[in-house]
Amino acid sequence: MKLGKIIVTTILIMVVILGGMGTYLRQPSGQLRDFDAWQAKSNTSAEGLNVRFFGVSTLLFDNGQEQILIDGFFSRPTLWQVLSSKVSSDSRLLQKFIQEEQLDQTQAILVTHSHYDHALDIPELAALLPQTQIIGSNSTLNIARSHPEVKASQLRRAVSGQSLRSGQFKVTPLASAHTPPTPVNDDLGEEITIPLKLPAKFSEFKEGGSFDYLIEHDRQRILVKASTGFIPGQLKDVQADILFLGIAQLSRQPEDYQKSYLQQTLAMVKPKIVIPIHWDDFFQPLDQPLQFLPRFADNAPESMRILIKAAEAQQIQVVLLSNSQPYNLLKSASSQVP
Known about the structure:
Blueprint: H1 2-26, E1 50-53, E2 59-62, E3 67-70, H2 79-84, H3 91-100, E4 106-110, H4 116-119, H5 122-128, E5 133-136, H6 138-144, E6 155-157, E7 164-166, E8 169-176, E9 210-217, E10 220-225, E11 242-246, H7 255-269, E12 273-277, H8 300-313, E13 317-318, E14 327-328, H9 329-334
Parallel strand pairs: 3-4, 4-5, 5-6, 10-11, 11-12, 12-13
Antiparallel strand pairs: 1-2, 1-14, 2-3, 7-8, 8-9, 9-10
């Protein structure tokens, strides 16, 4: 009897310890208020190009008449949903965003790669926005093809270095590399070769090849780089005023990799402004304030500090977008000394 009590007590203690550890690891890896000095100041303007940030690498570029959307990941299923079941788009939520953000003005959706946190909503968005082009890898297009209402004429394969016009925007896809693999993200280079039937397990959203996108609009050159990976020398001839730079897992890479990544991006592109992306907890819905990725997933504040230190050493301004308020890129870039 005594031994039984000891065993039961030991089990209860282990459950409490493991539960506490789980709670700790699910908490945000830091606080956004620690980076208030870099938070964007309100500077919306009717002139030039405004951008809105919806977490991960979902960026909406809007000139008042036309829009370009990067990735368009709005549904953001919870961690439990991702781990325990198949994932799919929240159609009602997407319809709400389309109405509120006037996404019927979207000329094209540029998809950086085919993991679910970038491409999950592509089929539903394409069906709801029949005049919008979907641009991405063959894997991305096979995700889009899963919806019966998506037209073949909407789908365009991204070809590295091959520019295309979309309204007043000129877009150039550039072959890129994904963040180095992790135990739950080891499918780099794998493709989706047939239409992906949704709902689907998150692991079925293969990376399928990654792209950066150079966006030119009027006097502005903007580079969007969603993943913390690089192809050496790929950006040596690319110049941009503003760089949207993915920092997911940056702090968890070896120091040599961190230096190489920042050399191949910041030092090579020489932007006036760098805006970090892919740092937020994408298991949280967008009706809640953005927060850093949880501890079990990343040390996002440390990644932010690494970027800030490198940018300030090169006299590049860091701007942190932490909500979906419009941010005017022309006013921001023109205010910086070249």
